[in-house]
Amino acid sequence: MSLVRERWLKSLTALVLGAGLALALAACGGDTPTATPTATPKPADGGDTPAATPTPSFDVAAHFKGKTIRIMANSNPGGGTDAQGRLIATFLGNYIPGNPRIIVSNNGNKDGEYDYAASRAPKDGTYISWTSTPELERGHREGAVLRSTFRYLWTDSPRNTQTLSYGSPYNCAWDASGTSEPFFAFADEIADVESGGVTMLSDIAYMEDLRVPIIYRGVASATTADVLLMWERGDTNSTTRNSLWYQLPTIRAGWVAEGKVKMVADLGTTPARANAEGEPGCDDVRNHMTPEGVEKLNGFLNPSTYVGKSMWLPPGTPDEVWIALGDAFEAAFKDPAIIAKWSDFTGQELDQILRVEGQRLTEITDPAYAKAIPLVESETARVLEKYFGL
Length: 390
Hints:
With 390 residues, this protein is of the alpha/beta class. Strand 1, helix 4 and strand 2 form a beta-alpha-beta unit. The chain has 13 helices and ten strands.
């Protein structure tokens, strides 16, 4: 297990042990029933999720020959998730026996994509969800199924999360502690705002703990391309993302080198690294927060950071299909040429989480997230009133 996952599991343990704090804080916001997880968590230091047992007679090449696999990005076209999915589509079919055609589609309605994948999508390997975060929270809505019932396939790395700011007069977010005028202006998609998106809640939690006033706006779309456009127009100036810091030297050359964009807080499970134009500049935001604030931030953030952008098959997909596609990702990302292409495109070193480990981590995290739901619900109600007047 990599150092990243070891650090994440330690923070997850803290999240579980701190559930009492989450419940106490939530008491201020009412007692909303918590969904009961159906997955059985594996111990953090225990064995792997079973590798699954394929049907001996299953012919992978015959199964996939002549078929089209649709990778469904749960974002609008033009963003980082969409672009990376399209890169995967250029080579993945070469590593699947039968060489199926791979196409990418988009569904920016994240709840809708999740529900379709859970209940109506084909279970023969021809539909793969490609998500910007693990989105465990969507499985805890009324009538939804847990993410841990899906079959995890692959991610290139844990979600290394940072807050970036355009034109900031502050080197780090905590430099603005106690100021009266809000400089940092964020935006997120309206649907995610109304449902209590964990990124929004995380941003507000740590900024409030640091006593930094902020502005938060609800917008129709908040892909990477949208964020960059909002910055250039002056609509917003800050965002919390996982890969934009590493991509900036490619998609906006000079912005970091010239000081237009700074990383003002590191929220990740492992320290952020330099990109091609500069050093991070700011350390882990938790080093500057109160213990209560750290517990609150971890309650929101950890369930969305144990893996980054990730691939999922619908619940009920047969073992043999899950194994075949998991093997294809593993084989593709052993190819030095593909590793180099991916690293050049994303600006990050590959630190992938493969099928068995990712499924195990999901089955640990899903029930742990359930313990934080009362806090999520109470904080959502509070911030919707405070920041959005709802």
